[in-house]
Write a structure and sequence with these properties.
By secondary structure, the chain is an alpha/beta fold. The protein has 13 helices and eleven strands. The radius of gyration is 19 Å and the shape is globular.
């Protein structure tokens, strides 16, 4: 829950600027897009006289949701308030021009490893950045459109309220968004429905899965995912295909990156903290959900060995 002082600072800064630009991390997931567009919709409805911009590159998810991004002139950045959402590190911000903004605010739920904005509200205990925004806006009027985007991001990041980061405030935020018109059935369909291609690729991942100790991993190559997933960005998100096995404590999906050389890693666990393993390979994230990029195949095998050992602790 934001402190009274933090809420006042954020809303005071929003009031001060006629131009506001919303940023988020690269390769956006639903929490990133939900927080970015949910806040954008709220700002546009609350302050119709202000110029509200949404920046970043499109991906498969944003295209599926029919979301569009703005092209912004350099002089617009310099007179704007920049709000960075769901971005754990500076190098993960999708649009480095945030540095040109007159003032920057960061709202994020990842473990804090660095500071890169003028004002930072970090809540490592929150299950999603969308949860934080739901709590921030609780005493404000919120449109159905904004509530829908925020709710979709909230339930996507905490996987239907099943992660260890779910807390009382999670349900308070969800309840507020529901009261404001969020359609929970629509959110579930958007976040968790599978296409036939998804189903077939999930089956392929499971068929390639290997088990060591209480750890399950799969390594997927470009030729395997492109015919079904079309893009690396979508393929790397399919780590959930390895979840839900009662005897497995840790699972990981390694996906060949677009350069054809390196791999990305999506690491997950039920309750065991695996963040330090990700950090050792220049990755990061949450205690039970981490990501790493630009791994060699040798590093993939090294990480697999470390995860297997950790799975029995």
């Amino acid at each position: 829950m934001p402190t009274f002082a933090m809420k006042n600072k954020i809303f005071s800064l929003i009031e001060q600027y006629d131009s506001i630009i919303l940023f988020r991390h690269v390769l956006p997931d639903m929490d990133a897009l939900g927080s970015q567009f949910g806040l954008a919709y709220w700002l546009k409805k609350t302050y119709p006289q202000k110029q509200i911009y949404v920046t970043g590159s499109a991906n498969a998810l944003s295209n599926e949701l029919q979301l569009s991004f703005d092209t912004i002139a350099d002089d617009t950045y310099t007179r704007s308030l920049g709000i960075l959402l769901d971005a754990s590190t500076a190098n993960r911000v999708d649009d480095e021009n945030y540095k040109l903004c007159d003032f920057t605010i960061r709202i994020d739920h990842h473990v804090k490893t660095e500071s890169f904005c003028d004002l930072e509200w970090i809540d490592e205990k929150a299950s999603a950045t969308c949860e934080m925004l739901g709590l921030l806006l609780m005493e404000k009027d919120c449109s159905k459109e904004a509530a829908q985007m925020l709710y979709q991001g909230l339930v996507a990041d905490n996987v239907r309220f099943t992660t260890t980061s779910v807390r009382k405030e999670t349900f308070q935020a969800a309840g507020f968004l529901f009261e404001k018109g969020a359609d929970v059935v629509q959110a579930d369909r958007i976040n968790f429905s599978s296409t036939l291609e998804d189903f077939q690729y999930e089956t392929m991942i499971r068929n390639k899965a290997k088990v060591s100790q209480k750890c399950m991993t799969a390594i997927m190559e470009t030729a395997e995912y492109l015919p079904l997933m079309k893009t690396f960005a979508k393929a790397k998100e399919m780590v959930y295909a390895l979840s839900g096995v009662s005897s497995i404590e840790i699972w990981a999906l390694f996906t060949r990156m677009e350069d054809g050389v390196h791999y990305s890693a999506s690491l997950r666990s039920k309750t065991i903290d695996i963040r330090d393993i990700a950090q050792a390979f220049h990755g990061g994230g949450h205690a039970c959900a981490c990501g790493i990029k630009n791994l060699t195949i040798e590093q993939v095998h090294e990480i697999t060995d470390q995860l297997a050992k950790r799975s029995t602790m």
